[in-house]
Amino acid sequence: MKRNLQIVALILILAVMAYPLVWMITISLRTADGTSLRYYGEVWQAGPFDRYFVNSVVVVTIVLVGNILICSMAGYAFARYRIPGGKILFFLVISMIMLPKQVILVPLYILMQKLHLIDTYAALTLPFTADPFNIFLIRQFLVTIPPDCEEAARLEGAGELTVLFRVVMPMLKPALAVVAIHTCLINWNSFLFPFILTNTTSMRTLPVGLALLSQGAHSTDWGHLMAGALIASLPVILAFLVFQRQIISGLTSGMTR
Amino acid sequence: MKGRPANTDRFRLPPVVVLLLPWAIVYAVFYVFPFVFSFTLGFLSYNPLAVEKTSWVGVDNFARLFTDPRFARALRNTLVFVLGTVPLTTIGALGIAILLRGRIAGKSLFKAGFFLPSIISMVVISLLFKLFYAPNGGLNQALSLLGLGGHGWLTDPTTALPAIMVMDVWAAMGYYAIIFDAAFAGIPKELYEAAELEGAGFRATLRYVTVPMLRPVISFVLVINTIRSFQIFIEVFVMTQGGPLGSTDTLVLYLYEAAFRHLDYGYASAIAYAVFVLSGVFSIFAIRRFRPQFGRSGTVG
Question: What is the pLDDT of residue B51?
Fold first, then answer.
């Protein structure tokens, strides 16, 4: 009895929560000539969401590769080496996780302007290639593993980078999966920095393009807006449907530690 | 690998330096330098269009915060947003997590459903709710079934901010519910059995077992949600641009406009530091309040 009540309550909450999403989908599909994907096609080509989509994919890919390399190297160093002042350095890493990013918005913009990098992939990617959360995650994961395999490889004469890439990175796979999920999601959805650091249509990412579409001449054009919103969300939703368990545990387990 | 000579003559950096170098460069250039530069900017009048681009103005920018009526309004709205949404989100998330306890049919389906909004871009969610709250939008369509509706939720200054707050709770609640759900797994079953033997009801169990055991996680959730909420920007930028009548103006929206509309970089930096200090103070408060060691015998006052 109590359990049934529990389920009824959950279904009710879920229904209320799902309603706006369902409404959004119906708006995007309801065209003058019945239900069709017309808005999706039009936004894709004229939006131009095809360009935004490519930009988002390029940016996320570069940022992801950068994070996997840079954060693995740094996390490994923090976990395994006695670094003078290492504790302070690592505390700095953690404190940057908590820093409201808006504090560096204006100076970063000025810096990118001086470097003539505004409206380039460099501006959209470089500042985000060493996410402090990822370093923290990799370091915490590594300290739970004894360094036996690495010692063995070193005795065989392997250099440090070989040890990292051939021995440590394969062991890091579970942590790197979390890094990948976290990095892709944050950067795919990122708005403020990509918005500030670009100024032409050809360099906008999906969230920026969508926000600008909603403030331009199309602001009352609900069908196209919702189709664009769904195009921006679809890759994330599809990934979620496939890797649901990994994504949920990846985004929450690292949190409660 | 095997054929490499043990000693090479050329100078080699110690491996730890090589490992830390890429991080150190990115960190120094894109985090530390802007962070320090931001602080100095606060003491400058820095306007790229002015003849004298920069001049030292001392604490003027920081002092201006205290007399600027728009800053006061943005601060008030941001505080209302933070103090309204953070507790609601936390309580709602705890409620959902409690409902998810035990052997529930389709539990993973429920979890996925609650979690879904938190992976979707805030731009998408804000745009969706902008239309959803419109006079002929989804909310009013649903309300018209009850004989209500027709209200422009975002065009009425009294309902605009609350409407955005409700959306934010909607978007964030599921994520924290799943965090609490994971944390529940760490509470020993014996505690609940003991509470039941003692004849403790639902409320007593919640008060003396669940909440005290979850303290570290609750404090963590309060801190990250507080920091996140102080930064509210996308929501108001997409939905209202701070209107109507400034009723949804927030600190980061003001920061953005000071910097990129008025090109007043110095003042924008001062606002940024205000956000930084405020979210820091609130986070410390939340940590203190919910830190396990200092909890007073499990009561939540």
Answer: 64
Q: Structurally, how many domains does chain A consist of?
A: 1
Burial B7-29 (b: 16+ CB within 10 A, else e): eeeeeeeebbebbbebbbebbee
**Average pLDDT score over residue span A3-10:** 87
Arithmetic mean of pLDDT, A143-154: 88
Single-letter residue type at B234: I
Report pLDDT for B52.
66
Which residue, among A106, A165, A215, A253, would best test binding to B if mutated, counting the most B CBs under 10 Å from its CB? A106
Rounded distance, CA A185 to CA B282, Å?
27
User: Residues of B with CB below 8 A from A235's CB?
Assistant: none
Q: Does domain B59-294 have CATH number 2.102.10.10?
A: no
List the alpha helices (DSSP H) in B15-151: 15-27, 33-41, 60-67, 69-99, 107-115, 122-132, 138-144
Chain A residues within an 8 Å CB radius of B252: 102
**Domain annotation covers residue A21:** no
Q: Do A77 and B279 touch (CB under 8 A)?
A: no
Q: Of B28, B13, B46, nearest to B258 (Cα)?
A: B46
Residue A126 lies in a domain: yes
Chain A residues 20-49 with a CB less than 8 Å from chain B: 20-21, 23-24, 27
pLDDT, mean of each 10-residue run, chain B (301 residues):
48 81 93 88 77 75 92 96 96 93 85 93 95 91 85 92 96 93 84 84 83 86 90 95 92 95 91 91 78 41 29
A193 within 8 A of A101, measured Cβ to Cβ: yes
Cα–Cα distance measured from residue A79 to residue A93, given in angstroms and rounded to the nearest whole number: 13
B113-145: pLDDT as tens digits: 999 999 999 999 999 999 999 988 889 988 988
Q: Name the residue ranges covered by the structural domains of chain B.
A: 15-55, 59-294
CA distance A238 to chain B (A): 11
Instruction: Decide if A256 and B41 are in contact by the 8 Å CB cutoff.
Output: no
Q: State whether residue A70 sits within 8 Å of chain B by CB.
A: yes
CB proximity A52 to B under 8 Å:
no
Its pTM stands at: 0.89
Residue A62 domain flag = yes
Contacts of A240 in chain B (CB under 8 A): 112, 115-116, 119
State the residue for tokens 């801190």: B223
Average pLDDT value for residue range A2-23: 89
Assess A95–B contact: CB distance below 8 Å, yes or no: no
- CATH code assigned at A132: 1.10.3720.10
Q: Using a CB–CB cutoff of 8 Å, tell me whether A184 touches chain B.
A: no
Nearest by CB to residue A100, choosing from B16, B122, B227, is B227
Q: What is the ipTM metric for this complex?
A: 0.92
**Domain enclosing residue A166, as ranges:** 37-256
Examine residue A173 and state whether it is found in any structural domain, yes or no. Answer: yes
Instruction: Supply φ then ψ for residue B32, to 5 degrees.
Output: -65, -50
Interface test with A, best of B31, B169, B228 (most A CBs within 10 A): B31
